[in-house]
Design goal:
Two copies of one chain form a homodimer.
Chain A (H helix, E strand, L loop, with lengths): L7 H11 L17 H16 L3 E4 L5 E5 L9 E6 L12 H16 L8 E6 L12 H7 L4 H6 L8 H10 L5 E2 L8 E7 L4 H5 L3 E7 L1 E10 L3 E2 L11 H17 L5 E10 L5 E2 L2 E10 L2 H18 L4 E10 L2 E2 L2 H14 L3 E6 L5 H4 L5 E6 L15 H18 L6
Parallel strand pairs in A: 1-5, 3-4, 3-6, 6-16, 7-15
Antiparallel strand pairs in A: 1-2, 2-4, 7-14, 7-16, 8-12, 8-13, 9-11, 10-12
Helix pairs in contact in A: 1-3, 1-12, 3-12, 8-9, 10-12
Chain lengths: 413, 413
């Protein structure tokens, strides 16, 4: 038998209702991690889940789990979802689409009178965006054990409020939620998300079968020179930090920036003392490096550190790695299930790489994982104008529903 | 006969008294152009001048003239001095030393019962520093006719107060001062100043016979690219403003920065939007270029403009010249008089180039001009720790007194 059809209107209306929480005047959403807005979003989503017979739970990282209980509660659950937090000037779809698509899929399956073999959990990970508490992906990294919860608790926002204090506040607002331990075995993980790129839109595709997420490394580099008078200090005696930066940047661009599969960006740069007639003493900048192949990314990373130190001379360069997220491939079997559903439903689909990071990156080493992308207008995301077409939202949720139906061994053979 | 000796103690004590006006807690001076502090400094200096029989005058640019009247008032006057304004965290000597040395020299000559052939004018130029109203050298440029007084009047400080309004306030505070027209013929101009460099100190010299001032050009460059997502925008589609800046900077450094007679500095640089994961859209930076030879400086300037535009591609570069001050040589005859006085007085002296700009730059095309440098500790200036030794202050004033004595044709044959 075919999987049941999701209710496209219910999904769209709930997505729009959710977007009212933290709505900005320009049509976007400001619902940052562990804010009052996120608390309100939890209430709303938990209420919808309860009405469908799901059980809400949480964990020490304030991840939200909405559990559709299976017949054998001892089996590792099947999980789908994304996150409910947004950028400060974010949109209605980034994160929220994944959570609501998963909830819609589960509600659809439950309403069809089915009961899954194992638990199916709709998840909303804590602080994916990292705009209030940096860096992001906190909930999924805590779940996967790649970042200690103590480290996460200690992170403070711009006002000096700690993640730990806000997790306590969030959990205290929901005293009746059972607490799961951090991390538990999973059967599979699937995350629907808007693409945040133009590949699907340009190819006029509805469904992106995500093959993997490119790896990312970031560095903070500090070049230290010596300050001096622009009119008097002789050129040969200078240790000019901007000259050193230009040499470093030119060498990196020549060696790394010419290869289109590598993404190499220096987006942030600060000069001190930054006065027109003073030979600059210090340049601090950030390097953002991405590549789908971990071996290439690692080699690039080593190269970056070496070049920064060598090319900055006679200045001293100090390179601090900040983020090192390996690339990952998603599960081939799950990609096949996604492709099969899209084919059966008549949704144009193609494989795409995710150039942005997602919580699914943390799940991929733990269990078979996948992502389902839908197009977003002009590839614009992290912006109040972010937009996804209602038919694409429905298609993404339907494909997820179909795949969950197969995986929970109830609907399709 | 030998020229009379200046009163070293009187000069030092008056310099220290002057430094009380605008004194900062760290021992420096904050007496910016056309401030209440400068008004107070005028009162003090005019009072000293009046007691010595000099006549105070001003002009539409609020330059202060202290006139020792000569026998033939129709002859172009001999002028010496510097400026009374300071940097916000300036020192006791930059500018003030030149004015007070000139006043001491004239008072010494007058007290010796002499009367000069022509007027000798002690000058305090308006706004040399340019820290409150930018750029500086306003009084001497208005006098020399290189910047229209209307342009100067329109310049506003950070609070929105115009130079014109503050000139009116300053002149209204001294209603009895006769107004000279802007600019008048000069017989010669001599400016004593601290060196603001280490050449004299390192060579253990007391007097610097300044051969000229190196030329200076400054530019504002704006590189315009296109903003994008660091993880998704393909390298070949990027118009990355930081990449373009690095290319421009490397080419300029390779072509210009290797020559030690040229001073090439990019001390100020701003990136937009300056976020770690956004391909940068815009870089604005300042170029400071100096050389003693105008032909070389002009060629360098043309080269800079060409390279900025060519090397920034595919970004667009826009180059705006801000300052173009030609280098100048000081009068050989006056240098000889300075050297002769130093030799007779036993002050170790050597020729030096001025790497910083001074009001004397504007006088050099108008009349035979010269500068007398004295050492300052560690070359530090524009800083509250700026310091000159009392014996060097006295030596500089004595040499000026000797030279004025020769030029006014009263003392030496």
């Amino acid at each position: 038998m075919a999987a049941p059809s999701i209710d496209a209107d219910r999904l769209w209306n709930r997505l729009m209702r959710l977007a009212e929480i933290g709505a900005t005047p320009k049509g976007g959403v400001d619902r940052q991690a562990l804010s009052e807005g996120e608390t309100e979003a939890w209430r709303l989503v938990i209420d919808w889940a309860h009405k469908a017979g799901l059980v809400a739970q949480t964990d020490p990282a304030a991840n939200l789990f909405l559990v559709w209980e299976g017949r054998d509660r001892t089996l590792p659950p099947l999980m789908a979802g994304s996150h409910l937090d947004s950028q400060p000037t974010g949109g209605k779809f980034d994160g929220a689409f994944g959570v609501m698509a998963a909830l819609e899929a589960v509600i659809t399956l439950a309403a069809a009178g089915l009961r899954p073999e194992r638990d199916i959990i709709v998840v909303a990970w804590m602080n994916e965006e990292g705009s209030r508490f940096a860096p992001g992906m906190m909930g999924s990294e805590a779940f996967a054990g790649v970042r200690p919860i103590e480290t996460i608790h200690a992170v403070k926002d711009a006002k000096g409020i700690s993640t730990g204090a806000e997790i306590d506040r969030q959990l205290a607002a929901f005293p009746n939620l059972a607490r799961r331990p951090l991390g538990f075995p999973l059967f599979a993980y699937i995350e629907p998300h808007i693409e945040q790129h133009t590949l699907l839109e340009q190819a006029e595709m509805t469904i992106g079968i995500v093959t993997g997420i490119q790896g990312k490394k970031t560095y903070e580099v500090k070049i230290e020179g010596t300050k001096g008078h622009a009119g008097t200090l002789s050129m040969r005696d200078r240790r000019d930090a901007v000259v050193a930066f230009a040499e470093v940047m030119s060498r990196l661009q020549a060696q790394i920036g010419r290869h289109d599969h590598i993404k190499f960006t220096v987006g942030q740069l600060l000069v001190e003392p930054n006065a027109p007639s003073i030979v600059p003493e210090r340049v601090r900048f950030r390097i953002d490096l991405r590549h789908p192949d971990n071996a290439v990314l690692d080699r690039c990373g080593e190269f970056v550190e070496r070049i920064c130190i060598a090319a900055a001379k006679p200045c001293n360069a100090n390179v601090t790695p900040l983020v090192s997220a390996a690339s990952n491939d998603f599960d081939a079997g799950l990609q096949e299930l996604i492709a099969r559903s899209a084919g059966q439903r008549g949704f144009p689909a193609m494989p795409v790489l995710s150039y942005a990071g997602h919580d699914a990156r943390q799940m991929a080493p733990l269990c078979p994982s996948a992502m389902i992308f839908i197009p977003c207008r002009d590839g614009v995301s992290h912006d109040e104008s972010e937009w996804a077409e209602p038919q694409h939202v429905a298609a993404g949720a339907q494909v997820l529903c179909d795949v969950l139906a197969v995986l929970c061994r109830e609907v399709l053979p």
